[in-house]
Structure formats: C-alpha cells, structure tokens
UniProtKB/TrEMBL annotation:
InterPro entries: CheC-like_sf, Flag_FliM, FliN-like_C, SpoA-like_sf. This is Flagellar motor switch protein FliM. It comes from Brevibacillus fluminis. It is a peripheral membrane protein. Belongs to the FliM family. The gene is fliM.
C-alpha cells in the first residue's frame, strides 16, 4: 500500500519545491528506479489481511467472554482487550515468551493439532493468589507450581476454553479441551520451528496487575477453515443467521393466524322459485346420509372427517380422520 502523506507533510514538500531545496526532476528519477523490498522466506506470510481481521473479530468476542468469566471467578476488576494479532514463525514466538511461564496446551476437535494459551506469570500468579483467598499479590520469587496450585490453574483454564468454543461457534463448532499445563517453553514443541503461527495478544489487567495472554494458533491447524475467516464468509453467515431468525418469527406469527373451521352436515341446491315459496315446516333434503361422516373444512380446504355430537350440552364435532395432503379438496 502506498504511503499516505499528512497535510503538513504535503505543505512542507510544496514549500521545498518552491524554494528550490528539492528538484522535481530528481523526484521523477527516484520514482522510475526499481524499488527492492527485502523478503524473508522463513517468515512467509500465510494469513491474508482479511483473515487476520477475521481472527481479530473472533478474539475480540473471546476477550469480552474472558472478562466476564474471570471477573466472576476472581471477584475483582478484570479487563481484557485484544492488543495485536500477528503472524510469525513458531520459533520466534517461543523466543518471545518468558523462560518460566504458564503454557496451556489444548486441542479443539474437529481441528487437528495442538494450540497454546500462554499466560504471563504476573497474571497467572495474581489469579492464583485471588483464587486461594489473597489480594492478587505477585510473589517476589516465582517458582514451579505445587500439585495443588497446578490443579487449581488447570481447572480455571479448562473452563476458560468453554468461552473459546463460544467465540468460534459462528465459524466452526469446536470442542476445546486442555491437554496439559506446562511451564517451560523448551518442552513445548507443538509444530516445527519454521511453521507460521497466528499469535493473538490479549492485554490483561487484574486489579493493579497487568500482563499479556498470548494465544498461539498454528497455520497448519487452521488451514481447513481458512476460507471461513474471510470477511465475505463472516457477513454471509451473519446474513443467513438474520434470515433464519426472520423465518422463525414468521413461522410463529403464522401459528397465531386465525382460520375459520366449518363442519358441513350436507348441501342442497334449490332454484329461486322454490326458495321464495319456502314456509314454516318445509323440509330441505341434503345430499348426505345420516350415517356418513361430516366434512370439516379449514378455510376453503377439507382437512378432516368427523361425527356430529354434543359436549357439555353444546353442539360439537368429533374428528375421526385426518386427510392426507393428496386427499384434501377445495370447495
């Protein structure tokens, strides 16, 4: 993308051209020269900008869900936001995290492969202190977790993965589970060193303690669903969801629509002259015998057959037969 100059930079450039400090011919010469950009094949970009934006949207939602979850668990002020979404070699990610940290290695079927949620020690120990009844203080010396502390942390971050499922459900229905909690990055080799990974950095504040939670998603794990991370798929999914909701609302409204139901004892046809000569006591013969079933119409369509009778002193009709769709007739 070409660099965009600010208004002050444009004014300074015009002033330099007017005063003779810069030569327009030299500028044209520079533009005509071939520009070379250094490209590192070890850092080949595997995620497009659109896919990075898709990951950002997903994890902004995840950050909100984690804020709610940790606030309830720790009973203190928690704020989590997406700080950055980058792609880099896995080896570079390992070098960038502390030598002693909390590494939650997890899987998310049906995706194949392992992913990592790295929690900065400051944040992890502040959480642990709150969970064990403290004020969220950080110990002066951070050592290995005891068995009890390890169990507590595993339980907390296993539940945090439920929110990971919720954040991803519009893209894919995953079932994440914590495989192991590790502290030494050197013992965590989930992909080859040169494999490109997406690293989502979540800026986290718990009380007065700040730190980062980094989620490492290898490209090889996300590759089957990469097309779904595009903005086009995202908005088409939202459109489908909106259409489905509108369809459900329409169905519910149709269910409350009122239709007339008529049970016919029979019909007869007379001419106008006969109609005008009718008097009290005359009998009109219907086209239906007394033992035959009545036709019950819903709107203009015959839907049921039944028998006449009474119920609690009121005239009623008992439905004996529901007609199949091909048997239904209009009258």
């Amino acid at each position: 993308m070409a660099e965009v100059l600010s208004q002050s930079e444009i004014d300074a450039l015009l002033a330099a051209l007017s005063s003779g400090e810069m030569d327009a011919n030299e500028l044209k010469k520079e533009d005509s020269e071939k520009k070379v950009k250094v490209y590192d094949f070890k850092r080949a970009l595997r995620f497009s900008k659109d896919q990075i934006r898709g990951l950002t949207r997903i994890h902004e939602n995840y950050a909100r869900l984690l804020t709610t979850y940790f606030s309830a668990q720790l009973r203190t002020f928690v704020q989590i936001t997406v700080a950055s979404v980058d792609q880099l070699p896995y080896e570079e990610f390992i070098r960038s995290i502390p030598k002693m940290t909390i590494l939650n290695i997890f899987e998310a079927p049906p995706l194949e492969g392992r992913m990592v949620m790295e929690v900065n020690p400051n944040i992890a120990y502040a959480m642990l202190d709150r969970l064990l009844g403290g004020q969220g203080a950080i110990p002066e010396k951070m050592g290995a977790l005891t068995e009890i502390e390890n169990t507590v942390m595993e339980r907390v971050f296993s539940k945090a993965l439920d929110s990971f499922h919720e954040a991803w459900k519009q893209i894919i229905d995953i079932d994440p589970y914590l495989e192991v909690l590790e502290m030494n990055p050197q013992f965590m080799q989930i992909v080859s060193p040169n494999e490109i990974v997406a690293v989502i950095s979540l800026s986290t504040k718990i009380g007065d303690t700040t730190g980062m939670i980094n989620i490492c998603l290898p490209h090889v794990v996300l590759e089957p669903i990469m097309p779904k991370l595009s903005g086009q798929y995202w908005f088409s999914t939202q459109r489908r969801s909106r259409d489905e909701r509108e369809e459900i609302v329409l169905q519910e409204k149709i269910k409350t629509a009122k239709l007339p139901i008529v049970a016919e004892l029979g019909t007869a046809t007379i001419n106008v002259g006969e109609f005008l000569s009718l008097s009290k006591g005359d009998v009109i013969q219907l086209d239906q015998v007394i033992d035959s079933k009545l036709s019950i119409k819903v709107g203009e369509r015959i839907k049921f057959r039944g028998q006449p009778g009474t119920a609690k002193g009121r005239i009623a009709v008992q439905i004996d037969e529901v007609l199949e769709k091909e048997e239904e007739t209009y009258e």
